[in-house]
Q: What sequence folds into this?
């Protein structure tokens, strides 16, 4: 038996073609789908159709606030609420044969957080539009 | 961040406090001449604070030593370095500097103690500096 983990530090994340990896330290893709209920009269419990629920993925990410004017946090996300962002996520990093996920997502909220005793950080939540395209680099 | 470059730039910046009154040792010295600013080894170095080795963090003690108290003037002598502002303020001078070896420095409030360096006792203010910079 073997175990071959991959380390999160290798993850690459691009938003609208800009590589935001250097100021990102968390990203969570929630694979989800709606349930399509098919319960009829006489059923003793809820019943659901198999494989027909719409995909309803979610995505969130966050990190340290980067003050770079053109490629930093504000340049990429600030004022973009409600708009579509194109993501490329390489969870195992960049390299031939490694997986790549491509998806579009609506920016639901963007939250720069400024504690008095630490560096400024940010989080952003997205609703994925459509499905994810899985490719191999 | 290149650790040696960080020490060099912090030492250069500390030297601006006073070229004659403050002797700067950007390394752990065997002996010192007071008043002295000393940069010993880091307490903590963290790599990979973000993806792609984008950010590293160094927590570094900064010690200012003045002669062991033989009279009440020791507080008066140490205070200008320990205060949050002023021409000799370690916090104010370091945080207002411009650096290329790292991106950001935050100097925390000091603690105070008596320590022995090279067999001689000194009164010291011990700061902790949080330093962030490129993970490369």
A:
């Amino acid at each position: 038996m073997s175990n071959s983990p991959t380390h999160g530090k290798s993850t690459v994340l691009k938003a609208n073609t800009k590589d935001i990896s250097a100021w990102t330290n968390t990203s969570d893709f929630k694979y989800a789908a709606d349930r399509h209920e098919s319960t009829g009269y006489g059923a003793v419990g809820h019943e659901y159709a198999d494989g027909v629920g719409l995909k309803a993925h979610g995505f969130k990410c966050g990190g340290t606030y980067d003050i770079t004017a053109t490629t930093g946090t504000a340049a990429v996300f600030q004022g973009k609420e409600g708009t579509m962002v194109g993501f490329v996520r390489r969870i195992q990093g960049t390299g031939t044969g490694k997986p790549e996920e491509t998806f579009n997502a609506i920016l639901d909220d963007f939250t720069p957080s400024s504690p008095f005793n630490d560096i400024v950080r940010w989080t952003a939540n997205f609703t994925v539009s459509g499905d994810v395209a899985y490719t191999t680099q | 961040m290149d650790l040696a470059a960080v020490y060099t730039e912090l030492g250069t910046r500390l030297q601006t406090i006073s070229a004659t009154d403050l002797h700067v040792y950007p390394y752990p010295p065997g002996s010192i001449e007071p008043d002295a600013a000393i940069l010993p080894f880091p307490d903590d170095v963290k790599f990979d604070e973000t993806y792609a080795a984008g950010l590293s963090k160094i927590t570094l003690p900064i010690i200012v030593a003045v002669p062991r108290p033989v009279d009440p003037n020791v507080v008066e002598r140490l205070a200008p370095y320990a205060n949050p502002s002023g021409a000799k303020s370690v916090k104010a001078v370091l945080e207002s500097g411009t650096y290329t070896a790292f991106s950001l420095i935050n100097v925390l409030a000091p603690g105070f103690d008596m320590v022995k360096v090279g067999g001689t006792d000194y009164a010291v203010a011990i700061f902790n500096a949080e330093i962030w910079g490129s993970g490369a």
